[in-house]
Amino acid sequence: MSSLSPSIRLQVPALSGARCLMLAVLLAILALLADQRAALTGDFAEYLQMTVSAASHGGTDVRADDIAAMRGLLPADLHGQLDKLDAYRRDPVNTPMVPGFYPGLDGKIHAIHFPAYSLLAAVPFKLFQWTGITPLLCYQAANLAMLPVLALALLHLFAGAPAGAAAVARDDRRAALRAGAGVVLFMLCGGWLYWSWSGPEFVSAAALLAGLAWYCSGAPLRGGALVGLAAMQNPSIIITLGALPVLAWCLQPGVSLRQGVLDTLRPRPLAGLLLGGALAAIPVLFNLHVFGKPSIIATISTARDMMSVGRLHSLFFDFNQGMIMAIPAVAAMLLLSGWRGVPLQERRRRALALLLCIALAIAYAIPALTVHNWNSGAAGVMRYAYWSAMPFVFLLLWRLRGAARWPYVLLAGVFALQAAAMSAGTTYSAVELSPTAKFVLQRMPKLYNPEPEIFAERVSGRDDFLPGSMQVYVLRDGNDIWKALYHRAVPDAARKLCGASETLSGSGVTRRRGDWIYLDGPVRCITPATFSPDRFSAGPFVSAGSGWSVLEQSPGKPGGRWSDGDVSRLTVAYGQPGMHARIAFRGRYFTGNRRTRVVINGVDMGKFDLQAGESAPIPKAATTSGLQIELHHEAPHSPGPQDGRQLAFYLEQVSLQ
User: Fold this and answer.
1) Which residue ranges traverse the bilayer (predicted)?
2) What pTM did the predictor assign?
3) Residue ranges of the domains in the chain?
4) Where are the beta strands (DSSP E) in 389-479?
């Protein structure tokens, strides 16, 4: 009897910890579902059609009965889309193509997305139909069904903690608590934003994180299967299967490279990788069968020329949609914590693991950069950036796995910052500026120049950006323009910004992003200040100094003055610093003169063709309200023996811009 008691004492806490964890997760799921209305987000039309088709006839092709069933589920304002889909189904040759759908080799219309997520949602869809629950909640149910799976994976991760953390390894209740904390962290790294979506982002993220946790903690079959499941809807995740053995080796500093290779070639790890690859191949084979192509969506909805370094940077660091908006505290903790007091070999392995996770995230992102609507329909952080962040979340959890005592104060700050990030992510849509982006653009506009399509769509509130648009996009606050964006082909951006009667006033610093130009503020639209020489002495703005001839004025026409000598001087004063950024001198040259050197407040601004309308920038315009101007003429000379003046430029107007 006494020989059995140690076994009993070891097993009961494990069961109790796992059961408590599962109970807590299930109660959380029920609470979320009970308070959630069915949400139609992302590419819901395609996913809903495949779900309805799978639940009704076990296929994915669009049928008349499927459209009729969708009419009963969707609000009336969306029935017009169903009418177009029905017409396209009946005559795909002579009917305009419906986005998201394409004819298959069988002549029937199919959704272009991989079907795995819709087939998964078809199970709760059918169940909810039978029980009278709103069938559209099937997507939230499918998403949340991944939480128990993730909880079990994290429980396995923490229950198998190394011997150095013996107190944790033996206490499975504590392991369950830590696994629960891991589930909460997952929700605070984008899960809270996407759990209610009718799209596969949540499932892919949870399956990827669970797969990483299981494989690297000694359950390679389950790990490979979960990574394969994640890749069934987002195929670039399949790259993870090649990285898993390397990542597992990096996380075990005491294992040599040779031993790591041998461990990978053992039957179970190898079978796990093959199983993941087989699952990931199913939707590809399905596409080959239905469309004759491995991925029809990659064929018709992507373009390689859309891939750019700017897009890649945006996916990670943009203040509206970048990955950094989903995991700010996780990223900071990975970079700044966990390095001191760690043996050199382990530090090197940690650095290598971090670099591998960065490489994985970039590899995930590359296919997304070619998608036309890559940044459409996001919930805070963009969809691709959300699930691409999971390797970093896993890496932080792995570091915590090896800690006998968690840094609770530091982790409290991490959880608080992540919660704040999720709260901010719920306050704006994919066509609105985030609070962070708005703050930076209004206070430090020179520091933030997002991809043109991101700025254009979020300040206009429309998801319709065209690369060659002739529109001027403006972020303004009352009369002040904080930032503006226009294509270099726009002939007169100032006129489009301010109208025909006004011009821009302010610093007006411009920065280019390809063919697009950013105008940094603050600037404002004001009535331009223009003065002809006959008004120089009538007001305080412009007065003529030395180097000018007498005023010449024909009846009914503005007066003008010829320059006289090598240098002509003007004094300009205006009330408010920063009101004007440039100054122009309208007039005509005397024979032999083509350009004029302009010196403003002692600063040589260079030579300008004043007759052609070229304007000179005002140095330190933001703090300047008075100008001492010298016009150094190119070749002044006398018009004839009876005229002793040395003429070069006839000034008709001074214009402050």
Assistant:
1) 12-34, 145-168, 175-195, 237-257, 269-286, 319-339, 351-372, 384-401, 408-431
2) 0.82
3) 5-35+145-425, 44-136, 435-526, 529-656
4) 473-477
